[in-house]
Amino acid sequence: MTDKCIHCGRKTNPGSGLFANRVPVFGTLEEKMGDGFRYPEGEWICRECDAMRD
Which of 7, 17, 38, 54 could staple 49 via S-S, CB 3.0–4.6 A? Predict the structure, then answer.
């Protein structure tokens, strides 16, 4: 597991400033790669990147 945002790659771990509003992303590595995420090994998307997807 990694605390990187799957879209922008910024850390979403505690103390990063992006921890409180991060959103979990479910799916396999292959599904995330198919969705075009640049950092598909992550399990979170930061609130800023999630807001851009809406």
Answer: 7
